[in-house]
Design a protein that fits this description.
heterodimer, A: alpha+beta, Immunoglobulin-like, four-stranded antiparallel beta sheet, B: mainly alpha, 8 helices, globular
Chain lengths: 240, 179
């Protein structure tokens, strides 16, 4: 079973929010870089959209609607109170300018949603960096470049922040592959195959295996490989 | 959705029985349940200008964020055993048929959706239905369900996976319904 199989098997559990909190954070991280799981989770959410209505309706206390409406409308003035008017005005302007601007409104909303997602990811990464009790640097030299792997381990949340920096682009058709080393063998984690001119930040939960994690490794693997064992050259190997 | 105060009141009247059903089943606390529902409607009001294209899917969105916020509260408590004790004192909020004599549930907008969802839940084997009740309607995690039912966590995961596969099929025909 590959690490990705765990994500596939737990899609419904993620949507139902029945994963334990650490697992849920790990899953959310995964969605940031897995288009397949991301799309499937959205489809699942749509399919189960009405499931919450399996509950019996509860008779609201008398006057609840007026009371809630008053509580909402009477909130103290502040930027949050007036922000909706700005949004509404922006939407009206967009409608006034026709379909092209309407599409622009949709694009901006999508951009805002993406930004919120990125913000959550950044907060998550920062929390691991700030809470880490152990930091380890593993130098890596490749093709005349000197970079490395920096691992921040937070034993409280069982999460790591891994920074890969200073490496040349992976050879054509290959990716950098990060592995966990456990008592029972290597467990495939994330791959890095993007712009290596800037450090890559990876926030990772522990793999869903019963054996404790003892270390980490970085290898170069064929981009199409799904092998559960490293096949390519090993750039870093560290045990704790 | 228009930023109209009367529209807000009407939306609360239509949606609050269902949202209170969700929050009370999870939080087992009527006051806290109402706080979550208030918070959800405040979000709707604050985002009214940006919900223009989503009115057809407003109710599913409300259901989802209500459930998520109730679960967030539940997790923040980090005291689920206490919740169980409170649930016993409060009385279980049933997943299924309401029992109030004065409240005409069948007259609630959305009752037809409730009937369809209830039929889908009834179609599950009892052990899977119980797992869904605890996970989806009580907001318990895998490990909490395993502890509550005294069964291995792997069994919980299997029951839930099978149940959601079936629910996905049985609820598929109603996913585009509107209230």
């Amino acid at each position: 079973m590959s690490a990705h199989d765990w994500y596939v098997e737990n899609r419904a559990a993620f949507v139902a929010r029945s994963l334990d909190p650490d697992e849920e954070r790990t899953y959310r991280d995964h969605l940031l870089h897995c288009a397949e799981c991301s799309a499937e989770v959205k489809r699942l959410e749509a399919d189960l959209a009405w499931l919450p209505m399996g509950v019996a309706p509860v008779a609201p206390p008398p006057g609840l609607a007026r009371r809630l409406a008053s509580a909402i409308l009477d909130r103290p003035a502040g930027w949050r109170r007036y922000l909706p008017y700005g949004l509404a005005a922006a939407l009206l302007v967009a409608v006034g300018f026709g379909a092209r601007d309407r599409a622009e409104g949709v694009r901006l909303r999508s951009l805002l949603a993406d930004t919120e997602t990125r913000m959550m990811a950044l907060e998550d990464t920062l929390s691991v960096l700030r809470s880490a009790q152990h930091v380890q640097q593993i130098p890596i030299s490749m093709e005349g470049k000197h970079g490395g792997l920096l691992i921040f381990r937070d034993s409280g949340s069982h999460r790591w922040c891994v920074i890969l920096h200073g490496l040349p682009p992976a050879p054509a058709g290959n990716v950098y592959q990060f592995w966990f080393i456990t008592e029972t063998g290597m467990v495939r984690s994330v791959e890095v195959n993007g712009d290596t001119s800037r450090p890559a930040f990876l926030t990772l939960g522990m793999p869903p295996v019963p054996a404790p994690v003892m270390g980490a490794a970085l290898t170069v693997e064929p981009a199409v490989s799904t092998s559960s064992e490293p096949q390519g050259p090993q750039l870093a190997h560290v045990t704790f | 959705m228009a930023r109209d105060e009367q529209a807000l009141v009407e939306l609360i009247e239509v949606a609050s029985p269902w949202l209170l059903g969700i929050t009370q089943s999870m939080l087992s606390d009527a006051d806290e349940a109402e706080e979550v529902v208030l918070d959800v409607f405040a979000s709707v009001w604050d985002r009214a200008g940006s919900l223009g294209d989503e009115h057809d899917t407003l109710m599913p969105w409300l259901l989802r964020i209500t459930r998520n916020r109730a679960i967030d509260r539940l997790r923040r408590r980090a005291r689920w055993k206490r919740k169980i004790a409170r649930a016993e004192a409060f009385g279980e909020v049933p997943v299924g048929r309401p029992e109030s004599a004065e409240f005409n549930e069948a007259a609630q907008p959305g009752w037809h959706v409730h009937e369809a969802v209830h039929a889908a839940l009834d179609g599950l084997p009892p052990d899977q239905r119980e797992a869904v009740r605890l996970a989806y309607f009580r907001g318990l995690t895998h490990s909490e369900i395993a502890a509550e039912l005294s069964i291995p966590m792997g069994t919980v995961k299997t029951r839930l996976r099978l149940a959601f596969d079936k629910l996905r099929v049985s609820l598929g025909p109603i996913k585009d319904w509107v209230l």
